[in-house]
Amino acid sequence: MSNQQGNIGYGILGFCIPLVGLILFLVWKDEKPGDAKMAGVGALVSVIVGAFFYIISFVVGMASMSVFVG
Question: For 15-39, what is the mean pLDDT?
């Protein structure tokens, strides 16, 4: 597999552990650009999905509070 394409395993690792994905991206961005991109994208997707679920849980929590209060 060429370095330009990247390894999906690093994307999965970055998704599961975003800090590791960010570190791998920063370390490999010049040496292994494909693998670095996969790790960085995995970390970015993980952070976006986490923020989305946090916002959804906040909205649902506020909605359920208004049902009990009002």
Answer: 96
DSSP 7: -
The domain total for the chain is: 1
Q: Which domain holds residue 49?
A: 8-69
User: Do residues 10 and 35 lie in contact, with contact meaning Cβ atoms separated by under 8 Å?
Assistant: yes
Nearest to 39 by CA among 60, 68, 16: 16
Alpha helices in the chain (DSSP H): 8-16, 18-28, 33-69
For 34, the 3-state DSSP assignment is: helix
Judge whether 2 lies within some domain.
no
| pLDDT tens readout for residues 30-56 | 999 999 999 999 999 999 999 999 999
pTM of the full structure: 0.81
